[in-house]
Amino acid sequence: MTPRCLKAGLKEKCGVVGISSIVKQRVSESIYKALYTLQHRGQEAAGIAVLEGQEIKLVKGLGLVTDVLTKDVLAELNGGVGIGHVRYSTTPGVTIEEAQPFAVKNPKFSFSLAFNGTITNYMEIREELARLGAVFVTKTDTEVLAKLLAKNLMECGLDYVEAFKATASDIDGSCSMVLVNDKGELYAYRDPMGFKPLCVGRVNDLVVVASETCALDVLAGFNGCEYEPVKPGELVRVSEG
Questions:
Q1: CATH number for the domain including 51?
Q2: Using CA atoms, how far apart are residues 132 and 128, in angstroms rounded to an integer?
Q3: Mean pLDDT of the chain
Q4: Sequence-ordered list of residues with C-beta below 8 angstroms from that of 222, at least 6 positions apart, any chain
């Protein structure tokens, strides 16, 4: 059976995956399989972030999924919730710093975020964040998004739902994103216009969010699974276990 990939064969800007295990089984191999299935969405870089205890372990690098996420790497990632990303860039010369997921960590919270889309007003947001003291290591809109969300999280009393609402009202453009935090929560968000694909479903004991349904089909062994699109403007929250 052929995976039911949305827009199969077209070059897309990045692919995202988020997986949470209801029974807290390790999810790194499942994230790998999903990213491998979404490889057509980006071949320049790949990455994974998995929560172990209260620490988010992040691995990313340049190249294909098979180049970056080797068996040895996956064997060291034992958490039950995580996210992944494959990158397709519209600009040449991608660096390891620009690979996703992006991580934010401070004494009060930590999270990793993976993003597919374009924020058209990111330079204005970047300038405002820099004025407030933010330091940037890349020129990507994803880093701007991560630091904007972190700022809103502090202003919203560490409430992720309210922080996402504030962030959504601040940005212009199209996006789908996934986030894992140190609380063991998985979030998935799709912009109000729904330009970037994102679906959510259940595969055995896994809750899976992915850019395309083919990732869920592969994880289900093509035996069928329940999934639906994340609605435009919708925020999905999944708690670990």
A1: 3.60.20.10
A2: 6
A3: 92
A4: 1, 3
In a domain? residue 6: no
Q: How many domains does the chain have?
A: 1
* DSSP calls for the chain: -----TTTTS--S-EEEEEEETT----HHHHHHHHHHTGGG--SEEEEEEEETTEEEEEEEES-HHHHS-HHHHHT---SEEEEEEE--SSS---GGGSS-EEEE-SS-EEEEEEEEEETTHHHHHHHHHHTT---SS--HHHHHHHHHHHHHHHTTT-HHHHHHHHHHH--EEEEEEEEETTSEEEEEE-TT--S--EEEEETTEEEEESSHHHHHHHTTTS--EEEEPPTT-EEEEE--
* Residue numbers of the domain that contains 176: 15-239
14 is catalytic: yes
> 60-101: per-residue pLDDT in tens?
999 999 999 999 999 999 999 999 999 987 666 679 999 999
Tokens standing for residue 70: 């080797």
The catalytic residue among 14, 175, 199, 214 is 14
Is the residue at 10 inside a domain? Answer: no
Check pLDDT > 70 for residue 12.
Answer: no
Residue 74 lies in a domain: yes
Say if 8 falls within a structural domain: no
